[in-house]
Amino acid sequence: MKSTATQNNSKLALKPLILTMGISILTVSLVGCGGSSDNDNANNHNTSHNDSTSGNGNGNGNGNGNGNGNGNGDNNGDNSSSTANFSESATWTVDGTKQGDTCYDFDTQTDVECTGDQWDIKFTNKSRSVTLWTNSGISGTGKGAAYTTLWKDLEKLKNAQQVSEYSFQIDKAVNIFTKNPWSAYDLQGKHKLSPNNRVYLITTDATDKNTTSTVNKPIYAMQIINYYNDAGTSGYPTIRWIDTALPSQVQTKTINATSEDNWVYVNLKTGETTDKTGDWHVGFRRYNVILNSGISGDGQVGGYLAKTPAGYYEKELDEHGNPKPIKAKFLENNIQASLADLTQVSNYDISDKGVPWEIDTASSALQPKITGHYPTIDYGWYVYKGKEGHRLFTKPKDEAIGALIRSANSNSYARMYLADIKYEDPKNPSPTQWVYKLDIQPESK
């Protein structure tokens, strides 16, 4: 069944809506929450930071280089290019029986090929999962992004410019560095990043839980100990690492990762940089860090947080559920003092039975937090009810999540929710149609 779009160019009459990003009723496949600018938010807490272009390395800021600050999200485009209001409406009906990707251009209100900057929203239907993506970051070459909040709040907006451009998040990688950030941000209000000198284990074979380094399967331990060069310019992460079988042989390298667009790939065995097709373990772009695995590369490199040095965080959590940084500790120069945390391998927080290595996965702002437990699970956009035929149900309007989406060309916007989930056979819990409602703010003429 071909997706359809209907247009109404009259003044907008808002209707109750819910956005989906969905899953199948059999198995939930959640793909968590990198960006190209220093306004990135690279974790899954919907918060972010701006890293400064100058500073003094270890001890100049608060928050975290991967977005655990309290502030703004990714912004890969320009939120000021359109000054129109939400003046058009559309319905996007997606065939729930079709596997693979279905892409939609809300400017033309039609289905399009999932290539280049033609598409704005991608609906991916795999055998056991359904996800939504924007044309941005790791998902596409466009300048799209999204901001999610309660639909009742989005419904009040006249145009997208009422939302800060920094609230928009691009699609990005999720890995051990985003879940356990390597720095804190803006402790002194100067938008600086301060490393916490965490020790990350990096394996070349994430399928093997073993943490013993061998010639064939080396395991490295790495710290990020600085983010600024000698002139105080940001985008120059300094890494310090060892092969855990040779803890006394410490290597250090400062990387020019200042590009907004290009990654720098590092081979921890040789200490040399290479391109993406080469033999690499860790990649850097600004403060973003990726591993050669999953959505980031063809390798099997995995990561694990082996140690967080003492004294950097309080036990109390902030409003985002993150540990509160201890400012005084971050403002010290801890580079030399934290070296023992790297080299004393026996003090790593690991089990004799091995560790659950993490590879790089993908995330989008269109993927809200899941709450609840069987038989009722809230997926933000909809609710799964196991005792009502294992079906998915839309939520009441005042409880629903909605999304404000920036187009791939960064010149128009749409706010969207899921209006209906349809089933052809009352006894079959697999949806046959997903019906989205959109209010569109076209490009200014």
Q: Can you characterise this structure?
A:
The chain folds into 2 domains: 4-37 and 74-171 and 363-441, no CATH class; 176-359, no CATH class. The protein has 4 helices and 29 strands. With 445 residues, the chain is mainly beta. The strands form 8 sheets. The protein has a 6-stranded antiparallel beta sheet with strand order 1-2-29-28-27-7. Strands 14-13-12-11-19 form a 5-stranded antiparallel beta sheet. A 4-stranded antiparallel beta sheet has the order 4-3-5-6, with no helix packed on it.
Main beta-sheet strand count, sense and barrel state: 6 strands, antiparallel
* Spatial order of the strands forming the largest sheet: 1-2-29-28-27-7
Question: Hey, roughly how much beta strand do the residues contain?
Answer: 25-35%
Q: Cα-atom Rg, whole angstroms?
A: 23 Å
The domain tally reads 2
Low-confidence stretches: 1-50, 52-74
Percent of residues in helices comes to: under 10%
Class from secondary-structure proportions: mainly beta
Total strands: the figure is 29
The CA-CA distance between the termini, in Å, is 35 Å
Overall 3D form: globular
**Average pLDDT:** 83
**How many individual helices?**
4
